[in-house]
Each structure stands twice: as structure tokens, then as C-alpha cells.
Amino acid sequence: MDQPVRYFQPRLRAFGVVAFGIVLVGAIAGLVPLLGQPDPVQMVLSSMTAPVAVWGIWRVWRQSITVTADGVVVRNQLRDHHLRWSEITGAEYRMFPRFYQPGGVFLLLEDGREVRCHAFGDGPLDDMRATQHVLQALNARVVTTP
Questions:
Q1: pTM of the model
Q2: Whether the Cβ atoms of residue 56 and residue 21 lie closer than 8 Å to each other
Q3: How many whole angstroms separate alpha carbon 82 and alpha carbon 84?
Q4: Residue 1, pLDDT score
Q5: Confidence check: pLDDT of 146 > 70
Q6: Concatenated DSSP letters for 70-125?
Q7: Rounded-to-integer distance, Cα 34 and Cα 51, Å
Q8: What is the largest CA-CA distance in the chain?
Q9: What is the pLDDT of residues 55-80, one digit of tens each?
Q10: Which of 88, 66, 89, 84 is CA-nearest to residue 76?
Q11: If you count Cβ atoms within 10 Å of the first and of the last residue's Cβ in the chain, which end, N or C, has fewer?
């Protein structure tokens, strides 16, 4: 049986972790002056930022595409997709010029749906060599899988 292979972009992952880390540090630093305040509502609202930042760091860190013998697991920011090889017809890269149409790697499914892989987008931090490598690996597996 094949070992699972996990694809991700270290530079993109590091940027996301640093961004949420700054939010986390800001949340903790913002709580310190509130510790002596008598207003519990402000304290509760301020303390809710830290768990959201920790959750964001965890989700950005997990962002990846894992190729297994049975299929592909796409871990995006908000949702994971577990797909069998029989469901996947191919993988392609698309670049969209508008901010409201994000580009990147898309898995094309048998029923006409598409799954966007957030770990391989079309942003300035994305490594196109890594993107081409994951596309070749996915498409080679789709072609050889009966």
C-alpha cells in the first residue's frame, strides 16, 4: 500500500501563521489593561479574539492536499473534503484576474462539481513550481487509477 503524500506550501503556511499570531499577541496584549476593569462585557468580548486566533493558526497550519491510495483529502480553511479516486476526473490550475474569483488548483469531480484547494492558490506567496508538482502528481494518479 502506498504511503500518504502531503502537499503544502511552507511560505504560504508561515505567512498565515504569522498573521494569526499577530492577532493572538494583540488579543493577549489588549486583555492586560482590561484585567482591572469592572466591565465584564468588554472583558468577554476582548477575550473571544484569542480563541479565534488560535483556531485560525490551527486551520492555516493544516491547509494541505493529502494523496492516499484511496483518494485525496483536501484540507481548506473552513472545510475538509475527502474524495475517492473514482470521484475525481482531473486537476487543473486556473488564474482569475478579479479579487472575487479566487484562482488556484481545482479538483474536477465526476458530477461536475469542483473543489478548490486553498493550499495552492494564485496569490503572490504561492510557489508555482510546487503547484505544478502537485498538479502533475494528481493528474498522473487520476489517469492511472481505474
A1: 0.77
A2: no
A3: 7
A4: 41
A5: no
A6: SEEEEE-SS-EEEEEGGGEEEEEEE--SSTTS--EEEEEETTS-EEEETTS-SSTT
A7: 17
A8: 66
A9: 989 988 999 999 998 999 999 988 99
A10: 66
A11: C
How is residue 112 written as a grid cell?
A: 461536475
In 3D space, the residue among 126, 129, 108 whose CA is nearest the CA of residue 118 turns out to be 126
Residue 25 C-alpha cell reads as 499577541
Torsion 16-18-21-22 (CA) sign: negative
Q: Which phi and psi (to 5°) does residue 120 adopt?
A: -130, 85
CA distance 99 to 19: 20
Tell me which amino acid residue 127 is: D
Nearest to 89 by CA among 70, 69, 66, 112: 112
C-alpha cell at 59: 486551520
pLDDT band, residue 8 (cuts 50/70/90) = confident
